[in-house]
Write a sequence for this structure.
């Protein structure tokens, strides 16, 4: 899919993505795919990337820089106008370390929100998409 043929998602879908990203705690990261899964957008990691790309990062309270690719790397893009370097700098300011190849150790820094299950074993995700939720690591 080219950037010119991006199919835009409804604003409400982007808002759910932003609500989830807001819950990633300082000093932790999430992957695009992880955020997509938490938003019930299975297999739509790129949609998370598009949502974050469309934000005005200078005006947003969404910690967009805490979302990285599944390899533990910052996804490089020429259209981000230097935000790749900014992303690394912001993560380092939060104490996240990069190895010499520019990767983050996901075993150490990956956000692992606690999952609550209902009686049938299904994950309850109501709080993660509830804007009133103040917990940084709960999906209750």
């Amino acid at each position: 899919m080219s950037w010119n043929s991006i199919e835009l998602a409804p604003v409400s879908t982007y808002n759910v993505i932003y609500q989830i990203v807001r819950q990633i705690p300082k000093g932790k990261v999430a992957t695009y795919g992880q955020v997509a899964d938490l938003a019930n957008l299975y297999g739509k990691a790129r949609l998370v990337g598009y949502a974050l790309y469309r934000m005005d990062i200078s005006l947003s309270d969404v910690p967009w820089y805490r979302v990285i690719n599944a390899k533990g790397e910052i996804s490089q893009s020429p259209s981000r106008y230097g935000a790749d370097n900014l992303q690394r700098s912001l993560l380092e300011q939060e104490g996240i370390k990069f190895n010499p190849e520019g990767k983050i150790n996901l075993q150490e820094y990956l956000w692992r929100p606690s999952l609550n299950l209902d009686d049938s074993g299904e994950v309850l995700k109501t709080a993660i998409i509830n804007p009133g939720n103040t917990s940084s690591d709960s999906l209750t």
Notes: DSSP finds five helices and four strands in the chain. The domain at 3-113 is CATH 1.10.10.10 (Arc Repressor Mutant, subunit A).
